[in-house]
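TODO from last week: model Vacuolar ATP synthase subunit D.
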Amino acid sequence: MSGKGQREAIFPTRMALGNTKTRLKGAQTGHSLLKRKADALTKRFRIITAKIDEAKRKMGRIMQLASFSLAEVQYATGDISYIVQESVKSATFRVRAKQENVSGVFLPAFEPVVTEKGGSAEFSLTGLSRGGQQVAKARETYTKALQTLVELASLQTAFVILDEVIRMTNRRVNAIEHVIIPRLENTIAYIISELDEMDREEFFRLKKVQAKKKAKSEAADLERKAKQEEEDRKAQGGDSEATALQGGEGKSGDILSGGKDEDVIF
């Protein structure tokens, strides 16, 4: 499933944007590390594949020689299986297991341990009558065959484990690359677009509030100016009435006084 066009259901905030960016950075770092791990495991896988091919070819040749050497022993001495089983008291060929760390993957490794102590004594009487040289040769050949088998088993086990781990790592790499990272990038783009839209809405709201405040202030200024003009007109009207009254009183006084006394004739 591809992550293109998909995003997470998240509320667009600054904190969500920061958290998503942190997750995206972690996903990119994880993708890089897993890619390096997959490359290292693939390189080791190819080396092991080449060694397995070589070990199988070698195993075919050694088993062929071992079968011929056993046939020579049986031709020279007859069946010596019962003599060998009775003479063996402890194992002279052992397998030791250990682990090898390859990019965080623990691969089991087997190494042969050949113990020569007691081996010569156990096989000292085998082939005493005849065929002693063929018995020693067959013993050495089968020891080499066992060593090659142990090496092949170690390589084959590592091959199976690496094959499974590489497929799992590649699935994780593809999931991070094609699902998680595109989804986080789409989420970040969505949050940024929503935050930009919110900023534009806030800017528009502030402009509208400022315009309303300015209109209200202008209306208040006009109303105040009208009141001031009305008060001025009223004040001017009062002054004119007072002046008129004063003028009227002066004229009436003059009339009542009748001017100069000497001009009045009785």
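Done. The first strand starts at residue 93 and ends at 102.
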